[in-house]
From TrEMBL:
Organism lineage string: Bacteria, Pseudomonadati, Pseudomonadota, Betaproteobacteria, Rhodocyclales
Protein's UniProt name: IclR family transcriptional regulator
GO biological process, one term: negative regulation of DNA-templated transcription
Protein's organism: Denitromonas halophila
Superkingdom, natural source: Bacteria
GO molecular function terms listed in the Swiss-Prot or TrEMBL record: DNA binding; DNA-binding transcription factor activity
InterPro entries: GAF-like_dom_sf, HTH_MetabolicPath_Reg, Tscrpt_reg_IclR_C
Pfam families: IclR_C
Endpoints of the signal sequence: none
Domain IclR-ED: 1-172
Amino acid sequence: NTVHGARHVVLRQLVEEVGESCNITAFSGSEVLYLDRVETAAPLRFYLHPGSRVPAHCSASGKLFLAQMSPAQRRRLLAHVPLERFTPKTLTTLDALDEEIDTVKRQGYALDDEEFLPGLICAAVLVPRQNGRSNMGIAIQAPIMRLSHDKVLTLLPALKRAAKALADIETQAENELQHSA
């Protein structure tokens, strides 16, 4: 559909600007769902196709979605989800995750620094919504050998611009739906 096509254009432009793979995500149950993805042309990359699901506790987008919940909501959700260890850096206790969530709330972005896959760094921001909780994120992923922690922070302005562009697309689509109803 046209909304998906418009989102894909934003994603493709972001990949061209930052030179790394990028994806659009949504929160589904207790997992992050990849809605769309554009790969970098660089030879070394991690391939996670649209439709892939990753645990929220060890992904940048997931931490953002969890940060929108109250601590009580988050604990209820995660009470039934094992905080599985994928790498030595995975957060596997609710206390450690709560501390990370506090940082995410303060910063307005989230990182996954080799918490899901060894050698993979990811930064994500939410797609802003006028009326409360966001159901969409946008993220950059790259091998840590190519994208250091410090360098990923320099890409946040581009990521936030893309998130704003996606928000505008969503708002326009919602307005068109209301006018056609």
